[in-house]
């Protein structure tokens, strides 16, 4: 599989015209587009570079939570008048005015192999040097290592755990990047990270059908990992006498080993594995489910599938770990319990919940709110604006300010250089 920059695309309306010569990495905008961009909500339009992971296309056809989140963010930013350069793999099917692919086909089968990630980071860094950007938003693991040497500030979203070595890595990056948490719980677990803000992930709620939950089954939807708890979901469904459908990614060696050891021999008798669900199948499964089982046994940083379930009106039954209590309102949009043994009684009480309230709760995590949160974060690092503190920790809209979020860009650079800015 070849690597490096394989192709760059831009909509016809924003490609350089005629014989005009453009500096490397720039795109000429027609006057109508310039006038539209100048009307961006909240101030001048920003030139934003977004680096997606290399593993799946943006948006993904099936599994790919980060890629789905990036797609929604890109489209929302463009709709708000910003100019977005997206760097990813495979096809770029977003509204980004410019797209660079580092792999013609995403190396999905090599997920877990460090080399595609490193190649992607190196190619992305070279592309960023050619672009004139106000801010870079990096969603990869290796990419932030190269932030220290670039002129534009780099925002990093902590999509994964922050305990142990992943958190040590973010701490070691120091002030070379500004880090966005995807839940308040995640942020509190590692306060020494250079946190910029907290912005919950979002979904396009309108793209999910409001379901009746009349499919006659419970649903487990996610990666096959001990942390995600498919084996616990089977135990709960069997004890409650309910049918269970299992859907999720099953291609990494660790996932296959877990599935063989803890899941495969327990299929049948009302428990069925239906494969990895694409976007359409996922919506159909969620809409028909009586409830989503989310028996995680780790501190889940966010858990987008919980919002997707509620968008279909489907309650969530989960263990109280990580961000779960921030997303699910106990007794209203699902049940959040402390012990696995209590999941069974929660299943039996799920019919008392109002699916309409689940849908209403999901709207608090709509993509539009996520986009607003990130726009505020970008303006904080580019223009030195102060971030607005959220009214309460369960408000998924914006962010919490830190003591230095109001600094001008030059003062922020002084901070990163170890200089105390003047009062």
What is the subunit organization of this protein?
single chain
Spatial order of the strands forming the largest sheet: 1-4-3-2-5-6-7-8
User: CATH class of the largest domain, please?
Assistant: Alpha Beta
CATH architecture level-2 label of the largest domain: 3-Layer(aba) Sandwich
Tell me briefly what this model is.
The chain is α/β, with parallel strands linked by helices. The protein is built from 14 helices and 14 strands.
Question: Could you describe the 3D structure shown?
Answer:
There is one protein chain. The protein contains 14 helices and 14 strands. The strands form two sheets. It has an eight-stranded mixed sheet with strand order 1-4-3-2-5-6-7-8, sandwiched between helices. Strands 11-10-9-12-13-14 form a six-stranded parallel sheet, sandwiched between helices. It has two domains: 7-152; 205-365, Glycogen Phosphorylase B (Rossmann fold). The model is unreliable at 1-5, 10-38, 389-393 and 396-423 (pLDDT under 50). It is globular. With 423 residues, the chain is α/β, with parallel strands linked by helices.
Task: Summarize the SSE layout with pairings.
Elements: E1 7-9, H1 31-37, E2 47-51, H2 65-79, E3 83-88, E4 98-101, H3 114-130, E5 135-138, E6 154-158, H4 164-173, E7 178-181, H5 184-189, E8 195-198, E9 218-221, H6 230-240, E10 244-247, H7 253-263, E11 271-273, H8 279-288, E12 291-294, H9 304-311, E13 316-319, H10 324-327, E14 334-337, H11 343-348, H12 355-362, H13 367-383, H14 409-416
Keywords:
disordered N terminus, eight-stranded mixed beta sheet, 423 residues, 14 strands, globular, Rossmann fold, alpha/beta, single chain
């Amino acid at each position: 599989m070849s690597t490096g920059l394989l192709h760059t695309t831009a909509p016809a309306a924003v490609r350089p015209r005629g014989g005009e010569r453009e500096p490397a990495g720039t795109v000429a905008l027609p006057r109508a587009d310039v006038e539209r961009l100048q009307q961006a909500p909240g101030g001048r339009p920003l030139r934003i570079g977004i680096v997606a992971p290399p593993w799946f296309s943006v948006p993904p056809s099936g599994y790919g939570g980060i890629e789905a989140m990036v797609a929604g963010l890109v489209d929302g930013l463009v709709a708000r008048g910003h100019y977005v350069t997206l760097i990813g793999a495979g096809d770029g099917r977003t509204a980004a005015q410019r797209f660079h692919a580092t792999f013609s086909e995403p190396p999905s089968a090599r997920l877990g192999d460090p080399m595609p990630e490193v190649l992607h980071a190196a190619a992305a860094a070279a592309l960023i040097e050619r672009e004139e950007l106000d801010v870079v938003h990096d969603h990869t693991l290796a990419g932030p290592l190269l932030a220290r040497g670039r002129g534009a500030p780099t925002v990093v979203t902590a999509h994964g755990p922050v305990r142990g070595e992943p958190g040590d890595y973010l701490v070691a990056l120091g002030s070379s990047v500004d880090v966005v948490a995807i839940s308040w719980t995640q942020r509190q677990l590692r306060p020494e990270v250079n946190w910029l803000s907290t912005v919950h992930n979002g979904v396009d709620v309108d793209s999910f059908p409001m379901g009746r939950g009349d499919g006659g089954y419970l649903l487990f939807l996610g990666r096959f990992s001990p942390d995600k708890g498919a084996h616990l979901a089977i135990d709960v469904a069997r004890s409650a006498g309910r049918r269970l459908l299992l859907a999720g990614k099953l291609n990494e060696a660790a996932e296959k080993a877990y599935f063989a050891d803890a899941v495969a021999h327990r299929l049948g008798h009302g428990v069925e594995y239906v494969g990895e669900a694409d976007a359409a199948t996922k919506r159909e499964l969620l809409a028909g489910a009586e409830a989503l089982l989310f028996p995680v046994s780790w501190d889940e940083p966010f858990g987008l599938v919980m919002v997707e379930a509620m968008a279909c009106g489907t309650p969530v039954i989960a263990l109280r770990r990580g961000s779960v209590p921030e997303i699910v309102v106990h007794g209203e949009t699902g049940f959040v319990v402390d012990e696995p043994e209590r999941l069974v009684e929660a299943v039996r009480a799920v019919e008392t919940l109002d699916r309409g309230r689940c849908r209403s709760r999901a709207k608090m995590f709509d993509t539009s709110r996520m986009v607003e949160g990130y726009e505020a974060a970008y303006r904080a690092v580019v223009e030195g604006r102060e971030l607005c503190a959220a009214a309460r920790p369960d408000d998924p809209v914006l962010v919490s300010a830190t003591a230095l979020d109001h600094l001008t860009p030059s003062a922020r650079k002084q901070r990163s250089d170890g200089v105390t800015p003047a009062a």
